[in-house]
Design goal:
Elements lengths: L1 H27 L3 H11 L11 H20 L3 E13 L6 H6 L5 E14 L5 E5 H4 L4 E6 L2 E11 L4 E6 L8 E2 L10 E6 L9 E12 L13 E4 L11 E4 L3 E9 L8 E5 H14 L5 E2 L2 E4 L3 H6 L8 E6 L4 H5 L6 E5 L2 E2 L3 H10 L5 E8 L2 E8 L1 E2 L2 H5 L15 E5 L2 H7 L7 E6 L4 H4 L7 E5 L2 E2 L3 H9 L6 E8 L2 E8 L5
Length: 498
Protein backbone atom coordinates (compact mmCIF):
# COMPACT_ATOMS: atom_id res chain seq x y z
CA UNK A 1 0.00 0.00 0.00
CA UNK A 2 2.77 2.37 0.90
CA UNK A 3 4.51 1.72 -2.39
CA UNK A 4 1.32 2.43 -4.32
CA UNK A 5 0.80 5.69 -2.48
CA UNK A 6 4.40 6.64 -3.13
CA UNK A 7 3.99 5.99 -6.84
CA UNK A 8 0.84 8.10 -7.02
CA UNK A 9 2.57 10.96 -5.22
CA UNK A 10 5.49 10.82 -7.61
CA UNK A 11 3.18 10.88 -10.64
CA UNK A 12 1.22 13.75 -9.18
CA UNK A 13 4.45 15.66 -8.48
CA UNK A 14 5.61 15.11 -12.08
CA UNK A 15 2.26 16.32 -13.40
CA UNK A 16 2.37 19.43 -11.23
CA UNK A 17 5.96 20.02 -12.39
CA UNK A 18 5.03 19.83 -16.07
CA UNK A 19 2.10 22.22 -15.64
CA UNK A 20 4.26 24.66 -13.71
CA UNK A 21 6.98 24.51 -16.39
CA UNK A 22 4.53 25.24 -19.19
CA UNK A 23 3.13 28.21 -17.33
CA UNK A 24 6.54 29.62 -16.54
CA UNK A 25 7.90 29.08 -20.06
CA UNK A 26 4.83 30.65 -21.61
CA UNK A 27 5.03 33.74 -19.43
CA UNK A 28 8.74 34.13 -19.91
CA UNK A 29 8.52 33.48 -23.72
CA UNK A 30 11.34 30.91 -23.65
CA UNK A 31 10.05 28.48 -26.30
CA UNK A 32 11.17 28.32 -29.98
CA UNK A 33 7.68 29.47 -30.88
CA UNK A 34 8.21 32.57 -28.85
CA UNK A 35 11.56 33.21 -30.60
CA UNK A 36 9.95 32.82 -34.01
CA UNK A 37 7.21 35.28 -33.14
CA UNK A 38 9.84 37.72 -31.97
CA UNK A 39 11.58 37.51 -35.41
CA UNK A 40 8.28 38.11 -37.30
CA UNK A 41 7.91 41.45 -35.58
CA UNK A 42 11.26 42.64 -37.09
CA UNK A 43 10.86 41.16 -40.60
CA UNK A 44 10.52 43.63 -43.58
CA UNK A 45 8.17 42.41 -46.29
CA UNK A 46 9.00 43.80 -49.77
CA UNK A 47 6.44 44.04 -52.58
CA UNK A 48 2.78 43.20 -52.75
CA UNK A 49 1.61 39.65 -52.17
CA UNK A 50 -1.70 40.29 -53.94
CA UNK A 51 -2.36 37.68 -56.65
CA UNK A 52 -2.21 38.80 -60.33
CA UNK A 53 -5.68 39.80 -61.50
CA UNK A 54 -7.45 37.98 -64.28
CA UNK A 55 -7.38 41.14 -66.39
CA UNK A 56 -3.57 41.35 -66.20
CA UNK A 57 -3.23 37.67 -66.91
CA UNK A 58 -5.11 38.32 -70.15
CA UNK A 59 -2.64 41.04 -71.13
CA UNK A 60 0.22 38.66 -70.46
CA UNK A 61 -0.95 36.51 -73.36
CA UNK A 62 -0.57 39.55 -75.66
CA UNK A 63 2.98 40.05 -74.41
CA UNK A 64 3.75 36.41 -75.16
CA UNK A 65 2.44 36.94 -78.70
CA UNK A 66 5.09 39.65 -79.29
CA UNK A 67 7.76 37.33 -77.90
CA UNK A 68 6.70 34.47 -80.16
CA UNK A 69 6.56 36.66 -83.27
CA UNK A 70 10.07 37.96 -82.59
CA UNK A 71 11.35 34.38 -82.19
CA UNK A 72 9.74 33.23 -85.43
CA UNK A 73 10.64 36.20 -87.65
CA UNK A 74 14.15 37.13 -86.45
CA UNK A 75 15.87 34.17 -88.22
CA UNK A 76 14.57 35.61 -91.52
CA UNK A 77 16.08 39.08 -90.97
CA UNK A 78 19.55 39.97 -92.28
CA UNK A 79 21.97 42.88 -92.11
CA UNK A 80 23.06 44.38 -95.43
CA UNK A 81 26.30 46.34 -95.77
CA UNK A 82 27.12 48.03 -99.08
CA UNK A 83 30.21 49.75 -100.41
CA UNK A 84 30.34 52.32 -103.21
CA UNK A 85 33.74 53.40 -104.56
CA UNK A 86 33.72 57.08 -105.48
CA UNK A 87 36.57 58.34 -107.64
CA UNK A 88 37.39 61.94 -106.74
CA UNK A 89 39.85 64.30 -108.34
CA UNK A 90 42.72 65.19 -105.96
CA UNK A 91 42.13 68.92 -105.22
CA UNK A 92 45.87 69.55 -104.88
CA UNK A 93 46.39 68.62 -108.54
CA UNK A 94 44.82 71.95 -109.53
CA UNK A 95 47.84 73.67 -107.97
CA UNK A 96 50.99 73.77 -110.16
CA UNK A 97 53.25 74.02 -107.06
CA UNK A 98 52.00 70.73 -105.68
CA UNK A 99 52.10 69.05 -109.09
CA UNK A 100 55.73 70.13 -109.55
CA UNK A 101 57.17 69.27 -106.15
CA UNK A 102 55.03 66.38 -105.04
CA UNK A 103 54.17 63.14 -106.70
CA UNK A 104 50.55 62.79 -105.67
CA UNK A 105 47.81 60.70 -107.22
CA UNK A 106 45.52 62.70 -109.45
CA UNK A 107 42.60 60.61 -108.30
CA UNK A 108 41.67 59.60 -104.79
CA UNK A 109 39.23 56.75 -104.33
CA UNK A 110 36.81 57.05 -101.47
CA UNK A 111 34.58 54.32 -100.12
CA UNK A 112 31.06 55.17 -99.05
CA UNK A 113 29.50 52.57 -96.81
CA UNK A 114 25.82 51.98 -96.32
CA UNK A 115 23.79 49.97 -93.84
CA UNK A 116 20.39 48.44 -94.30
CA UNK A 117 18.24 45.44 -93.53
CA UNK A 118 16.64 42.70 -95.56
CA UNK A 119 14.23 39.80 -95.18
CA UNK A 120 14.63 36.27 -96.54
CA UNK A 121 11.76 35.40 -98.89
CA UNK A 122 13.05 32.10 -100.26
CA UNK A 123 14.98 29.20 -98.70
CA UNK A 124 17.49 29.26 -101.58
CA UNK A 125 18.96 32.64 -100.64
CA UNK A 126 16.67 35.31 -102.13
CA UNK A 127 16.40 38.42 -99.97
CA UNK A 128 13.99 41.34 -100.38
CA UNK A 129 15.18 44.85 -99.47
CA UNK A 130 14.97 48.49 -100.59
CA UNK A 131 16.53 49.65 -103.83
CA UNK A 132 18.19 52.56 -102.06
CA UNK A 133 20.00 50.12 -99.74
CA UNK A 134 21.92 48.51 -102.63
CA UNK A 135 21.74 51.22 -105.30
CA UNK A 136 25.09 51.73 -107.12
CA UNK A 137 26.82 49.33 -104.70
CA UNK A 138 30.15 47.90 -105.85
CA UNK A 139 30.10 45.30 -103.10
CA UNK A 140 27.27 43.91 -100.97
CA UNK A 141 27.73 41.83 -97.83
CA UNK A 142 24.92 40.07 -95.98
CA UNK A 143 25.31 39.12 -92.32
CA UNK A 144 23.15 36.24 -91.13
CA UNK A 145 23.47 34.67 -87.69
CA UNK A 146 26.94 36.13 -87.24
CA UNK A 147 28.31 34.95 -90.60
CA UNK A 148 29.02 37.11 -93.66
CA UNK A 149 28.08 36.22 -97.23
CA UNK A 150 28.75 38.02 -100.49
CA UNK A 151 25.55 38.94 -102.32
CA UNK A 152 24.62 39.63 -105.93
CA UNK A 153 21.83 41.88 -107.15
CA UNK A 154 19.09 39.89 -108.89
CA UNK A 155 17.06 42.94 -109.85
CA UNK A 156 16.20 46.50 -108.85
CA UNK A 157 13.07 48.61 -109.28
CA UNK A 158 13.74 52.28 -108.47
CA UNK A 159 10.10 53.22 -109.12
CA UNK A 160 8.92 51.18 -106.14
CA UNK A 161 12.24 51.36 -104.22
CA UNK A 162 12.48 47.57 -104.07
CA UNK A 163 15.34 45.20 -104.87
CA UNK A 164 16.09 41.49 -104.63
CA UNK A 165 19.56 40.20 -103.80
CA UNK A 166 20.82 36.64 -103.38
CA UNK A 167 23.42 34.85 -101.29
CA UNK A 168 24.94 31.45 -102.01
CA UNK A 169 23.29 29.55 -99.18
CA UNK A 170 20.35 27.17 -99.01
CA UNK A 171 17.99 25.85 -96.35
CA UNK A 172 17.32 29.37 -95.05
CA UNK A 173 14.25 30.33 -93.03
CA UNK A 174 11.93 32.40 -95.25
CA UNK A 175 9.40 34.76 -93.73
CA UNK A 176 5.67 34.07 -94.06
CA UNK A 177 3.95 36.46 -96.50
CA UNK A 178 0.80 38.20 -95.31
CA UNK A 179 -1.92 40.27 -96.95
CA UNK A 180 -1.45 44.02 -96.55
CA UNK A 181 -4.94 44.69 -97.88
CA UNK A 182 -6.41 43.09 -94.74
CA UNK A 183 -4.39 45.35 -92.43
CA UNK A 184 -6.50 47.71 -90.35
CA UNK A 185 -5.63 51.07 -88.87
CA UNK A 186 -4.93 50.51 -85.17
CA UNK A 187 -3.63 46.96 -85.66
CA UNK A 188 -0.44 45.97 -83.84
CA UNK A 189 2.68 45.57 -85.99
CA UNK A 190 6.38 44.95 -85.30
CA UNK A 191 9.48 46.22 -87.12
CA UNK A 192 12.78 44.33 -87.09
CA UNK A 193 16.11 45.63 -88.37
CA UNK A 194 19.42 47.33 -87.62
CA UNK A 195 18.86 50.92 -86.47
CA UNK A 196 22.00 53.07 -86.84
CA UNK A 197 24.49 50.22 -86.47
CA UNK A 198 25.05 46.56 -87.30
CA UNK A 199 25.83 46.15 -83.59
CA UNK A 200 22.09 46.69 -83.02
CA UNK A 201 21.10 43.95 -85.43
CA UNK A 202 17.63 42.43 -85.17
CA UNK A 203 16.28 45.18 -82.98
CA UNK A 204 12.55 44.64 -82.44
CA UNK A 205 10.13 47.55 -82.06
CA UNK A 206 6.35 47.58 -81.90
CA UNK A 207 3.55 49.99 -82.69
CA UNK A 208 0.30 50.20 -84.57
CA UNK A 209 -0.76 50.86 -88.14
CA UNK A 210 -1.28 54.62 -88.07
CA UNK A 211 -2.68 54.95 -91.61
CA UNK A 212 -2.79 53.23 -94.99
CA UNK A 213 -2.48 54.38 -98.58
CA UNK A 214 -0.11 57.29 -97.93
CA UNK A 215 1.07 58.90 -101.18
CA UNK A 216 2.97 61.95 -102.45
CA UNK A 217 5.68 61.46 -99.82
CA UNK A 218 8.69 60.89 -102.08
CA UNK A 219 8.42 63.62 -104.70
CA UNK A 220 11.73 64.09 -106.47
CA UNK A 221 13.08 60.74 -105.26
CA UNK A 222 12.28 58.78 -108.41
CA UNK A 223 9.71 56.64 -106.56
CA UNK A 224 6.58 56.58 -108.70
CA UNK A 225 4.45 53.94 -107.02
CA UNK A 226 3.49 55.02 -103.51
CA UNK A 227 0.93 53.27 -101.32
CA UNK A 228 2.69 53.41 -97.97
CA UNK A 229 1.66 51.92 -94.66
CA UNK A 230 2.26 54.47 -91.89
CA UNK A 231 3.27 53.17 -88.46
CA UNK A 232 4.53 54.50 -85.14
CA UNK A 233 6.74 51.44 -84.59
CA UNK A 234 10.24 52.88 -84.16
CA UNK A 235 12.02 52.95 -87.55
CA UNK A 236 15.45 54.56 -87.86
CA UNK A 237 18.27 54.75 -90.43
CA UNK A 238 19.45 51.18 -90.95
CA UNK A 239 15.93 49.75 -90.68
CA UNK A 240 15.40 50.29 -94.42
CA UNK A 241 14.58 47.03 -96.17
CA UNK A 242 13.62 45.22 -92.97
CA UNK A 243 10.27 43.58 -92.32
CA UNK A 244 7.09 45.00 -90.85
CA UNK A 245 5.07 42.05 -89.53
CA UNK A 246 1.69 41.52 -87.93
CA UNK A 247 1.01 39.50 -84.78
CA UNK A 248 0.61 36.38 -86.91
CA UNK A 249 4.29 36.67 -87.78
CA UNK A 250 3.43 37.50 -91.41
CA UNK A 251 5.31 40.02 -93.55
CA UNK A 252 2.95 42.89 -94.33
CA UNK A 253 5.44 45.60 -95.35
CA UNK A 254 9.04 46.56 -96.12
CA UNK A 255 10.24 49.42 -93.92
CA UNK A 256 11.37 52.22 -96.20
CA UNK A 257 11.31 55.77 -94.91
CA UNK A 258 10.99 58.02 -91.89
CA UNK A 259 10.18 61.68 -91.36
CA UNK A 260 13.34 63.53 -90.33
CA UNK A 261 16.66 61.93 -89.39
CA UNK A 262 15.45 59.65 -86.61
CA UNK A 263 12.28 58.10 -85.26
CA UNK A 264 9.55 60.51 -84.20
CA UNK A 265 6.74 57.99 -84.45
CA UNK A 266 6.12 58.44 -88.18
CA UNK A 267 7.54 55.68 -90.36
CA UNK A 268 6.51 54.22 -93.70
CA UNK A 269 6.56 50.75 -95.23
CA UNK A 270 5.85 49.41 -98.71
CA UNK A 271 2.84 47.07 -98.51
CA UNK A 272 3.68 43.44 -99.24
CA UNK A 273 0.93 43.15 -101.86
CA UNK A 274 2.80 45.71 -103.97
CA UNK A 275 6.20 44.23 -103.13
CA UNK A 276 5.11 40.66 -103.93
CA UNK A 277 4.37 41.42 -107.58
CA UNK A 278 7.61 43.37 -107.96
CA UNK A 279 9.88 40.77 -106.36
CA UNK A 280 8.36 37.91 -108.36
CA UNK A 281 9.16 39.75 -111.59
CA UNK A 282 12.65 40.68 -110.39
CA UNK A 283 13.42 37.05 -109.54
CA UNK A 284 12.03 35.69 -112.82
CA UNK A 285 12.99 38.43 -115.26
CA UNK A 286 15.47 40.70 -113.48
CA UNK A 287 13.27 43.72 -114.15
CA UNK A 288 9.67 44.86 -113.77
CA UNK A 289 7.23 45.20 -116.66
CA UNK A 290 4.30 47.57 -116.16
CA UNK A 291 1.38 48.84 -118.12
CA UNK A 292 1.54 52.40 -119.52
CA UNK A 293 -1.28 54.79 -120.32
CA UNK A 294 0.67 57.89 -121.36
CA UNK A 295 -0.96 60.75 -119.46
CA UNK A 296 -0.04 63.44 -116.97
CA UNK A 297 -2.67 63.46 -114.24
CA UNK A 298 -3.40 65.52 -111.15
CA UNK A 299 -5.89 65.56 -108.30
CA UNK A 300 -8.97 67.73 -108.18
CA UNK A 301 -9.73 70.26 -105.48
CA UNK A 302 -13.31 71.35 -104.62
CA UNK A 303 -13.14 74.46 -106.82
CA UNK A 304 -11.84 72.50 -109.80
CA UNK A 305 -14.53 69.86 -109.27
CA UNK A 306 -17.20 72.55 -109.29
CA UNK A 307 -15.73 74.10 -112.43
CA UNK A 308 -15.93 70.72 -114.19
CA UNK A 309 -19.47 70.16 -112.99
CA UNK A 310 -18.63 67.36 -110.57
CA UNK A 311 -20.29 66.87 -107.18
CA UNK A 312 -17.08 65.99 -105.34
CA UNK A 313 -13.32 66.24 -105.85
CA UNK A 314 -12.72 62.60 -106.75
CA UNK A 315 -11.00 61.24 -109.82
CA UNK A 316 -7.83 61.94 -111.81
CA UNK A 317 -7.70 65.01 -114.02
CA UNK A 318 -5.87 64.52 -117.33
CA UNK A 319 -3.70 67.61 -117.85
CA UNK A 320 -1.52 66.32 -120.70
CA UNK A 321 -1.36 63.37 -123.07
CA UNK A 322 1.80 61.91 -124.58
CA UNK A 323 1.77 61.86 -128.37
CA UNK A 324 1.08 58.47 -129.93
CA UNK A 325 0.50 56.96 -126.48
CA UNK A 326 -2.21 54.40 -125.58
CA UNK A 327 -4.22 57.24 -124.07
CA UNK A 328 -4.06 59.23 -127.29
CA UNK A 329 -4.99 56.18 -129.38
CA UNK A 330 -7.81 55.32 -126.98
CA UNK A 331 -9.47 58.72 -127.31
CA UNK A 332 -8.59 60.39 -124.01
CA UNK A 333 -8.47 64.18 -124.09
CA UNK A 334 -6.95 66.88 -121.96
CA UNK A 335 -9.51 67.95 -119.37
CA UNK A 336 -11.03 64.48 -119.00
CA UNK A 337 -11.53 63.33 -115.42
CA UNK A 338 -11.02 59.59 -115.00
CA UNK A 339 -13.74 58.34 -112.62
CA UNK A 340 -13.35 54.57 -112.95
CA UNK A 341 -10.91 51.97 -114.21
CA UNK A 342 -12.99 48.93 -115.08
CA UNK A 343 -15.18 48.65 -111.94
CA UNK A 344 -12.81 50.42 -109.54
CA UNK A 345 -13.76 53.95 -108.49
CA UNK A 346 -10.81 56.32 -108.81
CA UNK A 347 -10.35 58.58 -105.79
CA UNK A 348 -6.96 60.15 -106.60
CA UNK A 349 -4.40 60.38 -109.40
CA UNK A 350 -1.95 58.26 -107.39
CA UNK A 351 -4.50 55.47 -107.22
CA UNK A 352 -4.87 55.50 -111.01
CA UNK A 353 -1.09 55.41 -111.42
CA UNK A 354 -0.87 52.39 -109.10
CA UNK A 355 -3.66 50.53 -110.92
CA UNK A 356 -2.21 51.15 -114.39
CA UNK A 357 1.22 50.04 -113.17
CA UNK A 358 -0.22 46.80 -111.82
CA UNK A 359 -1.61 45.88 -115.25
CA UNK A 360 0.37 43.98 -117.86
CA UNK A 361 1.20 45.58 -121.21
CA UNK A 362 -1.39 44.91 -123.94
CA UNK A 363 -4.14 44.69 -121.30
CA UNK A 364 -7.45 46.17 -122.37
CA UNK A 365 -9.06 48.41 -119.80
CA UNK A 366 -12.27 50.41 -119.65
CA UNK A 367 -12.02 53.98 -118.45
CA UNK A 368 -15.07 55.92 -117.36
CA UNK A 369 -14.33 59.61 -117.82
CA UNK A 370 -16.20 62.81 -117.13
CA UNK A 371 -16.34 65.00 -120.25
CA UNK A 372 -18.68 67.86 -121.16
CA UNK A 373 -20.80 67.35 -118.01
CA UNK A 374 -21.40 63.68 -118.71
CA UNK A 375 -19.83 60.26 -118.39
CA UNK A 376 -18.17 58.54 -121.33
CA UNK A 377 -16.63 55.04 -121.48
CA UNK A 378 -13.42 54.42 -123.42
CA UNK A 379 -11.54 51.20 -124.13
CA UNK A 380 -7.76 51.53 -124.06
CA UNK A 381 -5.05 48.97 -124.78
CA UNK A 382 -2.12 49.64 -122.47
CA UNK A 383 1.44 49.90 -123.70
CA UNK A 384 4.61 48.90 -121.87
CA UNK A 385 6.11 51.41 -119.48
CA UNK A 386 9.72 52.07 -120.49
CA UNK A 387 11.31 54.08 -117.70
CA UNK A 388 14.41 54.91 -119.74
CA UNK A 389 12.29 56.27 -122.56
CA UNK A 390 9.94 58.14 -120.25
CA UNK A 391 12.74 59.87 -118.34
CA UNK A 392 14.92 60.52 -121.33
CA UNK A 393 17.68 58.16 -120.17
CA UNK A 394 19.58 56.73 -123.10
CA UNK A 395 22.51 54.47 -123.72
CA UNK A 396 25.60 54.59 -125.91
CA UNK A 397 26.62 57.93 -127.44
CA UNK A 398 23.57 59.74 -126.04
CA UNK A 399 24.32 59.07 -122.39
CA UNK A 400 25.39 62.17 -120.50
CA UNK A 401 29.12 62.33 -119.73
CA UNK A 402 29.67 62.30 -115.97
CA UNK A 403 33.46 62.18 -116.27
CA UNK A 404 33.87 65.81 -117.28
CA UNK A 405 31.48 67.80 -115.14
CA UNK A 406 30.04 65.15 -112.86
CA UNK A 407 26.48 65.59 -114.12
CA UNK A 408 23.90 63.08 -115.23
CA UNK A 409 20.93 64.62 -117.00
CA UNK A 410 17.61 63.52 -118.42
CA UNK A 411 15.16 64.93 -120.91
CA UNK A 412 12.38 66.96 -119.30
CA UNK A 413 9.35 64.75 -119.84
CA UNK A 414 5.85 65.94 -118.91
CA UNK A 415 5.97 63.67 -115.88
CA UNK A 416 9.26 65.10 -114.63
CA UNK A 417 8.14 68.64 -115.40
CA UNK A 418 5.02 68.07 -113.31
CA UNK A 419 7.01 66.52 -110.48
CA UNK A 420 9.67 69.24 -110.26
CA UNK A 421 7.50 72.23 -111.11
CA UNK A 422 8.90 73.01 -114.58
CA UNK A 423 5.67 72.63 -116.57
CA UNK A 424 6.22 75.91 -118.45
CA UNK A 425 9.96 75.52 -118.99
CA UNK A 426 12.33 73.94 -121.47
CA UNK A 427 15.67 72.37 -120.68
CA UNK A 428 17.18 69.18 -119.28
CA UNK A 429 16.99 67.95 -115.71
CA UNK A 430 19.93 67.18 -113.43
CA UNK A 431 19.20 63.77 -111.92
CA UNK A 432 22.58 62.94 -110.37
CA UNK A 433 25.76 64.76 -109.33
CA UNK A 434 29.00 62.87 -108.71
CA UNK A 435 30.29 63.62 -105.19
CA UNK A 436 33.52 65.64 -105.30
CA UNK A 437 33.09 66.59 -108.97
CA UNK A 438 33.40 70.13 -110.30
CA UNK A 439 29.58 70.32 -110.48
CA UNK A 440 29.32 69.19 -106.87
CA UNK A 441 31.88 71.77 -105.73
CA UNK A 442 29.94 74.52 -107.50
CA UNK A 443 26.76 73.60 -105.65
CA UNK A 444 24.76 72.03 -108.48
CA UNK A 445 22.19 69.60 -107.14
CA UNK A 446 19.68 67.01 -108.31
CA UNK A 447 16.51 68.69 -109.54
CA UNK A 448 18.19 71.72 -111.11
CA UNK A 449 17.09 72.54 -114.67
CA UNK A 450 19.81 73.30 -117.23
CA UNK A 451 18.46 75.85 -119.70
CA UNK A 452 21.61 76.61 -121.69
CA UNK A 453 25.31 75.74 -121.95
CA UNK A 454 27.69 78.48 -123.10
CA UNK A 455 24.63 80.48 -124.14
CA UNK A 456 23.34 77.70 -126.36
CA UNK A 457 19.83 76.56 -125.44
CA UNK A 458 19.60 72.84 -124.72
CA UNK A 459 16.29 71.01 -124.94
CA UNK A 460 17.45 67.40 -124.83
CA UNK A 461 20.28 65.16 -123.67
CA UNK A 462 21.73 64.82 -127.17
CA UNK A 463 22.24 68.57 -127.52
CA UNK A 464 23.83 68.76 -124.08
CA UNK A 465 26.24 65.89 -124.82
CA UNK A 466 27.25 67.42 -128.12
CA UNK A 467 28.28 70.67 -126.44
CA UNK A 468 30.03 69.02 -123.50
CA UNK A 469 31.92 66.54 -125.70
CA UNK A 470 33.45 69.44 -127.61
CA UNK A 471 34.98 70.97 -124.48
CA UNK A 472 38.65 70.40 -123.65
CA UNK A 473 40.50 70.38 -120.33
CA UNK A 474 40.46 73.78 -118.62
CA UNK A 475 37.60 75.05 -120.84
CA UNK A 476 34.67 76.72 -119.15
CA UNK A 477 31.08 75.54 -119.36
CA UNK A 478 28.73 78.40 -118.53
CA UNK A 479 25.45 76.89 -117.40
CA UNK A 480 22.20 78.80 -117.07
CA UNK A 481 20.21 76.97 -114.40
CA UNK A 482 16.85 77.13 -112.74
CA UNK A 483 15.79 75.90 -109.32
CA UNK A 484 12.22 76.58 -108.29
CA UNK A 485 11.46 80.09 -109.52
CA UNK A 486 15.09 81.28 -109.51
CA UNK A 487 17.41 81.43 -112.52
CA UNK A 488 21.19 81.75 -112.15
CA UNK A 489 24.52 81.02 -113.84
CA UNK A 490 27.33 78.65 -112.86
CA UNK A 491 30.72 78.46 -114.57
CA UNK A 492 32.29 74.99 -114.47
CA UNK A 493 35.91 74.48 -115.48
CA UNK A 494 36.48 71.18 -117.25
CA UNK A 495 39.03 69.16 -115.24
CA UNK A 496 42.11 67.54 -116.69
CA UNK A 497 41.45 64.44 -118.77
CA UNK A 498 42.02 61.21 -116.90
Amino acid sequence: MKSNKLTLLLLFAVFIGVITGLVISSNLDWTLKGLAANNDENEIILGSTTPVSAELQGLESLSKAFVQVAKEVSPSVVTINSEVIVKNQNPFMDDEFFRYFFRMPEQQDQVRRGLGSGVIVNADGYILTNNHVVKDADEITVTLEGKEYGAEIIGKDPESDLAVIKIDKTNLVPVKLGNSESLEVGEWVMAIGNPFSSDLNKTVTAGIVSAKGRTSLMRGSGITYEDFIQTDAAINPGNSGGPLVNLRGELVGINTAIVGQANIGIGFAIPINLAKNVMEQLIKEGHVVRGWLGVVITNLDPDMAEAFGLKDAKGALVSDIVDDSPAAKGGLKEGDVVLKLDNTVIETSDQLTMLIGSKAPDSKIKLTVWRDNGEKTLTVTLGERDIDKLTGKTTGDEKSDKNKLGLEVENLTPQLAQRYGYTNDEGILVVSVTPGSVADREGIREGFLIISVNRQVVTNVKEFNKIISGLQSNDLALLMLKSGDSKFFKALRVPKEK
